[in-house]
Amino acid sequence: MSQDKMHLINKIFHDKTIRTVWDKEEEKYYISVVDIVSVISESKDGRKYWNKLKQRLKEEGNESVTNCHQLKLKSSDGKYYNTDVCDIEGMFRIIESIPSKNAEPIKQWLAYLGKERIDETFDPSIAIQRAIDLYRVKGYDEEWIVKRIKSLQERKKLTDIWKENGIENNIEYAILTNEIYKEWSGMTAKEYKQYKGLRKENLRDNMDNIELILTDLSEEATKRIAAKQKPSGLNENIKVAKMGGHAAKVARDDIEKNLGESVVTKENKLNYKYIEEKATKKKLKEK
Q1: Region at 5 (left for phi over 0; alpha for psi -120 to 50; beta for the rest)
Q2: Which residue has better confidence, 90 or 246?
Q3: What global pTM score does this model have?
């Protein structure tokens, strides 16, 4: 399970934070087991409670434990630790192993969590509104949110065109996206993230308005050229992706000529800093 495919969404249950992750490829939630167990058991040390329960379930041959995965989630001390997570179905099985008056309310909460995704399938506007609300909570301004939501919608149109032109898997989508980025920014998406000091955070969520506009321009140009020329297969689509990226490169060069500075910056929208990593490196050097 690649954490790059995940998106962290903290959920609240009775004033308790339940660390919840959305896997966009599998289209399912993964939930922190220790957070749920802490709420149900009302234990002062939910982690110790879960470790004992996990050992018992293993000895009993309970499949709930084998269906758990580990992801790095942010803890209360601000650092990231490997944490057991499982999907909603697996969580129901674990809850059944814990005698508690809190079991039923948490089951209803989990059922509603699953219902959210079903509702979004029939009414995509719910998902869009949820994304808008999440960006607001994170502190993004309204002007940026409007641009970002529009870019999400336009990106879907581009991938639909690519699919029509014979692009079949996520690896090929990533290759084409990198060709677009390289053409106008001089970096692949991964290199661009590293340049901004990002790890798992979404690259576009950390672009300023001009960077986001140039990204949109490059993909819009690619989409229109691809729709017109109808390239077949990966190699032909790469050529078109470079054309789309070049359109944004021309715009970037003109803007920078007049500004007298680069519009591709190391800044990220919410000023992410990985202080704990720098501190660790410093300690290692001192040793």
Answers
A1: alpha
A2: 246
A3: 0.54
